[in-house]
């Protein structure tokens, strides 16, 4: 995680990255966290999900498996086939949804 934080120059982006890490780590405490494709990835032992702080949004990448299962819940955030985009505001991160997707993906 420190390696990813070092790539961010905006202090707000660092706060958002730390918050996303806290949200995901709360439900995946045993996951190995590593940089993959320039994103923060969570592996337990398979890849579970990824996130990255972009210029205009927070990108959450849960792989393609949970997309259909959470179709209604993710509709406001879905961009493309497997990318969820959240506003760059800590209070707008759908924490419960991120956690539900991560746990579901771990178990399926």
TrEMBL record:
> The YdhG-like domain covers which part of the protein?
17-102
- Identify this protein by name: YdhG-like domain-containing protein
């Amino acid at each position: 995680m420190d390696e990813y934080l070092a790539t961010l120059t905006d202090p707000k982006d660092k706060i958002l990255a730390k918050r996303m890490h806290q949200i995901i780590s709360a439900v995946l405490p045993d996951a190995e966290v590593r940089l993959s494709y320039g994103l923060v990835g969570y592996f337990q032992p398979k890849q579970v999900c990824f996130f990255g702080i972009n210029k205009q949004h927070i990108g959450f990448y849960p792989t393609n498996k949970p997309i259909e299962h959470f179709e209604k819940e993710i509709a406001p955030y879905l961009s493309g086939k497997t990318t969820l985009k959240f506003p760059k505001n800590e209070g707008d991160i759908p924490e419960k949804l991120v956690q539900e997707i991560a746990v579901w993906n771990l178990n399926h």
